Amino acid sequence: MKCLLELYLNIDVLDWNRHGHFQSPRVFERTWCQDGRLAARLSCKVERRSVTLYSRSSNFYDTRSGDEQQIIIAWTACRFGGERPWFECPGSCGRRVTKLYALNSWFACRHCYRLSYSSQYQAAGERSAWRAHRIRKRLAHEGDVSDVFPNRPKGMHCRTFHRLRRLHDDAEEKAALELLYAVSRTMQATARK
């Protein structure tokens, strides 16, 4: 089993762009908390074409390899105007990615570190139930799968709402079928004994 990427610290270039960090050269601090306590701290010097990461805690870089990492920023044109930033992975692949993960003291993409998503190890029924739950949460901001399906939120287009409703119903049906299949397999196995 591969390592799960949800367990590792990450930086997101799109999040930084949303917060305006690429508007002009600047330095900011990125922190991560765990159980209400500061887990790691990183100083980031952001320029238009590169980012330099400086360690502010021993959680990132070991003393042998130095205390900073340079990451190149690539910009691509968007279809309807503007530009979009990408990290160029400082690992062996050099891919354009939106997120980099801290593992083995340096940031690199999930492909270089061979990280996988936790959902890849869930049963199909669990994934379907989670998908239905996420759609409910998006529409009602609360609720359980057993609740009545929420009404269309104010401002949401009817086509979007109906598409989400179809996706929800399909996911819920698939989860129910997977549950029935698992129960029947268990009953058959018990009957054979």
Architecture overview:
- The chain is an alpha+beta fold and 193 residues long.
- It has helices at 13-18, 124-140, 158-192; strands spanning 3-4, 10-12, 26-34, 37-46, 50-55, 68-77, 83-88, 96-97, 99-103, 106-108, 115-116.
- The strands form three sheets. It has a six-stranded antiparallel beta sheet with strand order 3-4-5-6-7-8. Strands 2-9-10 form a three-stranded antiparallel beta sheet.
- Strand 7 and strand 8 (96-97) form a beta hairpin.
- Helix 2 runs antiparallel to helix 3 (158-192).
- It is extended, with a radius of gyration of 22 Å.
- The two termini are 32 Å apart.
- Residues 61-66 have low confidence and may be disordered.
Described by strand count, sense and barrel closure, the largest sheet is: 6 strands, antiparallel
Structural class: alpha+beta
> What is the CA-based Rg, rounded?
22 Å
Low-confidence stretches: 61-66
Strand order of the largest sheet: 3-4-5-6-7-8
Q: In total, how many beta strands? A: 11
Shape: extended
Provide mean pLDDT, rounded. 84
Intertermini distance? 32 Å
List the helices and strands in order.
EEHEEEEEEEEEHH
Tally of helical runs: 3
Q: What percent of the residues sit in helical stretches (DSSP H or I)?
A: 25-40%
What percent strand? 25-35%
Oligomeric state of the chains in view: single chain
